[in-house]
Design goal:
The chain is of the alpha+beta class. The chain has 2 helices and 10 strands, in the order βαββαβββββββ.
Length: about 160
């Protein structure tokens, strides 16, 4: 399956609300590891989310309009600052869905990448873009190129 990309996924006021919520109201913790086999390589900050949160349930219902899946295994945010590149990895579940939460980064910065064989497809980090892809595809998120920027993605793992 190629990645499916949906731009302007949420209403502007809602994506701005989520950006503030995840930046200032949801504690996130350093020590997330993209690839559990590389335990010595900590990538970035992470926070698991409460699946009973009404706002999260709303976003999931909107996602169901674009993707078919049985259920959500879990949801969390990844928070990356300058030099916090993710490692190539695969996910559990069948489909991974990411929503880019924070402000759009300059073209080529903070890209999300999917690797199929020797081909790498890069997606610019653009606020309010939803990307769904096969969880077994190698992928990673690159960090912003500036100490002034932050990259937050909302992740959903599905079955």
């Amino acid at each position: 399956m190629n990645a499916k990309v949906i731009n302007n996924f949420l209403q502007p006021d809602l994506i701005n609300f989520l950006e503030k919520k995840f930046l200032y109201n949801i504690p996130h913790y350093y020590g997330h590891i993209s690839d559990p086999d590389k335990k010595d390589n900590i990538d970035f900050y992470n926070s698991n989310l409460n699946m009973n949160d009404t706002m999260l349930q709303y976003v999931i219902e909107k996602i169901r309009n674009h993707f078919t899946f049985k259920d959500i295994l879990r949801s969390y945010i990844n928070v990356q600052h300058y030099k916090m590149d993710g490692n190539w990895h695969t996910d559990d579940g069948a489909l991974t869905i990411l929503l880019m939460i924070t402000k759009t980064l300059k073209k080529g910065e903070g890209c999300f990448q999917i690797k199929e064989k020797d081909n790498i497809t890069s997606y610019d980090f653009k606020q309010n873009t939803l990307i769904g892809f096969n969880a077994k595809s190698l992928h990673r998120g690159l960090a912003p190129n500036s100490t002034n920027d932050i990259r937050i993605t909302l992740a959903f793992k599905t079955i």
